[in-house]
Each structure stands twice: as structure tokens, then as C-alpha cells.
Amino acid sequence: MNPYFAYSFSFFMAVAVYLLGWSEAYPPLTKSLLGFLLLTIAFHFTAGIFWRKASTRFPVRLNDDFNIIRITLFIWILWIADFTYEGGIPLFKILWNEPYNYRLFGIPTLHVFIVTFSSFYTIYLFHLFLSTKRKFVLVIYILHLFAAILIYSRAMFMFNLCASGFLFLWYKPKYVRYILLIIPIVILLLYLFGAAGNMRVSREANSKYDSELFLQKGQATNNFKESFIPNEFFWFYIYTSSPLANLQQNINNADRHVSWSWFFKMVNNEMIFNFISKRINSIFGIPHPGEYTIEGPFNVSTVYSRSFSHLSWTGMFVMAIFILVIPFIYRMFLSPAYLGSGLALLSTMFLFMAYDNTISFTGLSFQLCYPLLFGWLEKKEIFSLRKATSYSS
After folding, report:
1. pLDDT at residue 387, rounded to an integer
2. pTM to 2 decimals?
3. For residue 55, what are the contacts with CB-CB under 8 A and spacing of at least 6?
4. Which residues of the chain have pLDDT under 70?
5. 383, 376, 366, 380: which is closest to 335 by C-alpha?
6. Are 159 and 364 in contact (CB under 8 A)?
7. Contact 54/327 with Cβ under 8 angstroms?
8. For residue 306, which of 280, 268, 363, 260 has the smallest C-alpha distance?
9. Rounded Cα–Cα distance for residues 187 and 191 (Å)
């Protein structure tokens, strides 16, 4: 449950996978970018050591199930409203080859709340299960986890699984020794992730399941095509390394800006929720700088790329410092009851920073608000997710 270690692992993995050189679309990784990434990895690893020494556990004991049922009904009523607005359930639409565009799914604005609150509550329920060992809580947790499958959101499903994994290792640190037993499960999940992606790409091309289509999109090299590795794992390679390729592409081609006006633009666009920054941009006519990416549909580019578009290398270093201080500040305001779910979400956010700017991505970062909000509401005795409040340390 260490966001700094999560960051270090994520970017180290991205660099290592990138250096495999399995895509002809990728530009060479420059020494300056490699040095910057290794420097941030080293700083985060060091910060993770201090974080670990300062960590404290506050497992939560559930004494009343009433609010679980009530909140679950509330969330699923919202999901049903989303399905009704869409005119069907996305998973079944895809399986039955009916028209469906995942970019347009959901009731505008309300869908953001549904996704973020549902994900937060899913993680919170797993937190409660680990502290209580109650099968009823586990069943409800699985029910909420299933929502990501119904809306065919691999991102939401992976976020929730990763956050659950952080919680599991936090409560059961002795099981780290059995990490080798987890590896086959991870490999299977990565294969299924690729298979689901191939299914979607094949459907968009109006063809039967074809694992070669994505190899063409990602410009796979002959080294990969001739290897023994199943084509489904090319999705993992692309998703892990293409953001780094886009960052390098942007550094190679973007205009260089260094001024106070561009600094404030960067703060607005990169350091606050994007549903807020978009409205500020619209009201004040603030431009959003362009971003250079590699060929194909791969348009995400780590937490640093758009910072470079705003302020060149200065922007990347400012963002790196901002990222370093977030966990220590956030933990200061977490109440014991929501420490587990809050830190699990924070660690997941840091894990995916090598993939995109998860700070401005409302779908993940806004979830961090719920542990703070419900902690404050409980403190003021206004509302509690649980009817009874008790902690064990």
C-alpha cells in the first residue's frame, strides 16, 4: 500500500518493456528522457522507504449491514438508469453485435458520479471484507465489481482489481512470499485483457475474432510476430509502452513554452480534475496545447507529456515535484475508517501514471474525494457508510 513504490514499479516496467523494441512505430528513447525517468524512479523509491516507516494500519470492523444494502440499491438504480439511457447493457450489445460506442455511454455528467462512486464503494467493500471476513460483504463486493464487466470497461475493472490487490497485500503482508503463485493468475488476466481487446477490434472491423488486426495497428515487428508469445499479449506491450513512446514523440516535436502564463495553464489543465479544467478553458478561452503522438489510435502519454507541451522540461520537473508531495498531504486528511480504501485508490492512481495523467483524469482521481468526504461526514455525525463506527489497530 505504497504509492511511491507503485510509481517506481510502473515506470520501471514501462521503460523495460519499451526497450524490447516490438513496435516499429516507436521513436528511440533519448538519454535525456531515460535519465529523467530513472531520476524520478529513484526519488519515489526513496520516498517509499520513508512512507513505509511512517505507515500505520487501522483496519475497520463492520457492525451493521443496513447501509451496505441501501447504498448497493442506490448504486444499481443509477446503473439501471445508465443502461436505460443507452438502450441496453454494453456487454450484451457487444456479444450480440449491436451498435455501441463506449465513448458515448452513460448519462452526461451523472455517469461520472456513477463510475467514480461505484468504484470507490467497491474498494471500500473489499476493505470491509478483509477486516471482517464476512461472506455477505464479499458477495456484495463481487456484485459491484461485476458492474465494470457489464459496461465493458477494462480500465475500470483493472483499476478496481489493482486497488483490491493493494488492500489484500496491506492486510496480508505475509502472503507476499507467495507472489510466484500469483504470477500465473496475472498472466491469465493479461491474456484475457488482450483477448477482450481483440474481440472489440474484430467487432469494429466487422470480422470474426482476429488477433492479427491489433498487430497491424501497433506495427508489431517481425521479432514479436516470430516469437512464441501469443498475439494477445501484444496488448500488454502496447498499453505499457506506447504512453512512453508518445511522451518521447511529444518531446521530439512539441513547441517549447516557458512563461508564467503557461505555468498557470499547466496547473489548470494538468493538476486539477479535467471536468473542472474543461469548463475553465471554455469560460476564459484558455487554449489546450496540442500533443504529438505516434501513428495509430494510441493517444495516451504518461503523466508528463502534456506538462512538456505547456512548459517544456520545466513543466515535467514541476509535475514530478507535485506528484512527490501528493501522498503525504493526502494521508494527513484521511480518517482511520477510510485510510485503507483511500490509500488503495491513491496507490492505483500512482501505478497508472506511466499510462496517463491520472491526476486530471476524473474517472480515477475524483474517487480520492470520497474517503475524505465520508470521513468528514462521520466526524460531524452527519452521515456514515456504516451505522456503527469502530476501529481496531
Report:
1. 55
2. 0.84
3. 1, 2
4. 54-66, 100-104, 173-181, 386-393
5. 376
6. yes
7. no
8. 268
9. 6
